[in-house]
Each structure stands twice: as structure tokens, then as C-alpha cells.
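Q: For a teaching session next week I want to show students how multiple molecules come together into a single three-dimensional assembly. I've collected the sequence lines for a complex. Could you give me the predicted C-alpha cells for the whole thing so I can convert them for display?
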Amino acid sequence: MPIPKKTGDIIIIGGGPAGLISGRTAVSKGVSVIVIEEHDVIGFPTHCAGLLSIKGLKQIGVHPDRAFIQNVVSDATFHSPSGLAFKVRGKGKQAYVVDRKAFDNYLTEQASEAGVNLKLGFQARSLVFGDKHVIGVTGKNGGKILAKVVIDAEGSSCKLLHMYKFNAPKRESFLSAMQFEVSGVEVNANSVEIFLGEKFAPGFFAWIIPTGESSARVGLAGRGINVHQRLYHFARNQFDKFNITAKRGGHVYVGAPSRKTYGDGFLVVGDAAGQIKPTTGGGVIFGGICAQFCGETAAEAVNNDDSSARFLQVYERRWKNSMGRELEIMLLARKIMDKLTDEAMDEIFKTIIDYNLHEEIEEHGHIDFQSKVLFRLLLHPSSLRIMWQIIKSLL
Ligand SMILES: Cc1cc2nc3c(=O)[nH]c(=O)nc-3n(C[C@H](O)[C@H](O)[C@H](O)COP(=O)(O)OP(=O)(O)OC[C@H]3O[C@@H](n4cnc5c(N)ncnc54)[C@H](O)[C@@H]3O)c2cc1C
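A: Of course. Below is the structure for the complete assembly, covering every listed component.
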């Protein structure tokens, strides 16, 4: 269907990483882009732990910058329910701990410099349809912005997607999360600490991410628990003393990506499309990679004068080719981990320590694309012991 002339080429709902990266990519292909953000400032409120892999950041076209980097880490220490631990030592620096507000502002500057038009304090209340084609959004006071392609990057709230019964990440796959910013604590500034098992966080894990020599983000997410109470208890056990400088709640997604992420004149990206690692709940890098495909496809639709679902479906092919299998494997790993009892988790830790499996992880591990190391562990001679623990837990 030929596209009628409208007020802008592309409208993006949401000024988070997925929206801003989609916008930056699309304008680089010579089209006009408006990003609308419901808040008056970018990056607020923030819920994120801010751990981003160095390789991942490169993949989403972001140069490391002091403006948003708080710390750099190379190691991760994993803790079992009974107190067993193993450390994975990265070969050099592996991840940045970022201030998400500053990071999102950095992405905003990148997008604005590229030519994206940002409209703050504009909340999309509904979509505008022409036939069955999405052709714009309506704001709070009934004001409309029309476009040739609308990109939904509204994040995990997915209000618009639910309103129109469009595919959205499953509500039951969101876990409640709580995070404290703490100061005056003793931490290893070079290492992230992960605590696995029901004892800490049923269905997920607890984390300590150092933001400096004596400060950290400590958090957990889980199913069927009072996350605030559980986190307070966890922090008291981990630190002799600590000052809480900020508290933030949120929802971590551990489910599958959405089955359909395109429609007539419409694309969905980032958390709104469930493009999140189900093992860790991290969505900035995967959402950012998909956002590049999304911006590229939207711009091609405008340049080819065709924003039909048939044309836009190439976006879904592109992002699924890039990470569809990864997401499936990580989802399977998440489902298995959810079934493990604390005893099984301890036995698996024992196996990892006995067989020095952390060396395998050091050699083949990747913070974002985790399937390779999961396969390596599966093929390892010790995997029978691990499988047995999994089967016992499943039974
Ligand atoms: C506790 C916690 C810890 C996390 N830690 C990490 C981590 O360490 N690393 C990592 O990679 N990921 C982490 N994540 C996930 C990460 O925060 C998200 O994956 C990421 O923010 C998704 O980006 P997005 O652009 O899709 O959505 P968002 O960042 O949520 O941005 C969506 C934007 O859309 C705006 N919006 C919504 N509706 C409308 C509307 N109708 N009109 C206009 N604007 C609208 C919102 O205000 C928001 O600014 C964590 C999440 C939680 C909850």
C-alpha cells in the first residue's frame, strides 16, 4: 500500500535505549524521526543495575565515556545457597557499571546530534489507525502526531500493546525486583557477586555490583517473595555496615521474546518486545542490537514507500537471525534453573569446583551470547553429574 504524506516519517514511542538507538539508526538512513517520551527528563526513573558488557556496548555503537561509566569489572563470583563459591576471572576488563540516567542521556545526545527530534513530556495515549494501518499516536490532550511508521519502544509496561491486544511479553514472566544503592561497604571493586538459589531469590538471583571502592548496587528479583524485606535481610547478612542512598523497585523479565513484533505501519522493539536475556534479565544490549535492525527496517519502509506488515516483517527476520536461537537456549537454561532445589544447586556448585569448570567458563563464556558456554558445559565429562541433579530436581 503506498504511504500517504504525514507529519513525520517515523514516530518512536519511548526515549529509552531501544527507542533512542532505533531513532539514531533510522535518521542515518535519511528519514525524519520524532522520539516521544512521557517524562520531562530522559532516564528517570531508573530501575537498572547498569551492568553492560564491553563487547555489547561496541555492538550497539556506543563508545565508552566517563560521562556514564562508574566502574569497570573483570570478574564474577558465584555463590551457592550453602556458601560454596567459584570465581570466573575475565581476561581483562569485561563489563562497565554504568549510571543509567547518564547513559540514557548520552544516547539522547547521540540521537539528537544524528538529527532525531525529541519531544519530552508527551505521552502516547492511543494509536491512530487508517484502515488497519497504524498511522500515528494521540497524546494526553488529544493532539496527534502522524507518521509513516510507528515504533513502539515503550519498555516493559507495554500499556499500548495490551490496549490493542498486540503480542506483548507475558505478564507472568515478570518478576518483582528491588535494588538498593549502598555506600560505606566493603566490596571487591573488580568483581560482580551473584547469589543463586531459593534461599536468596526463588526464580532468579541476588547481586552485588560494585559502583566504586566502597559503594555498590545490591539487588534481587524473585517469585512469590517480599523483595524489599528479602533484600534488606540479604544486605544485612552481606555487609557489616551499609548506608542506603537510594531504593528502586522494578520488574525483571525472564520469559520468551514476543511471537510477533511487526504489523501494518508498526514495529515493536526492546523490553516491549521481550528482547531480554532470560538468564539475567539484561535487556540494554539485546534491545539495542534489535533497535538497530528496527531503525534500519523502518527507514527502508519509508524510503521504499511501503510500510505494510509484509515489508516490515524483515525486521523480525533480522533480529531473530541474530539472536533468536540464543534467546531460546537461554530460556531453556532459565527454566531448568527455576526447577533446581537448593540442594541440587549446591551439588552443581560442587561439580563445577571439583572439575574446575570455571576455567571452561573463563575460556568460552560471553556475558551476552551465552549458548556457546552452555553447550561446552553440556559436553563436558562432568555434565552427567549436573544432569542427574537437574533430573532429580525435575522429578
Ligand atoms: C532491577 C533491574 C535491573 C536491571 N539490570 C540490568 C542490567 O544490569 N543490564 C541490562 O542490560 N539490563 C538491565 N535491566 C533491564 C533494562 O533496564 C531494560 O532491558 C532496558 O531499560 C530496556 O530498554 P527499553 O528502551 O526497551 O525500555 P525502557 O528503558 O523502559 O524505556 C522505555 C521508555 O518509554 C517511555 N514510555 C513508556 N510508555 C510511553 C508512552 N505511552 N508514551 C511516551 N513514552 C512512554 C518510558 O517512560 C521509558 O522512558 C534491569 C532491569 C531491572 C528491573
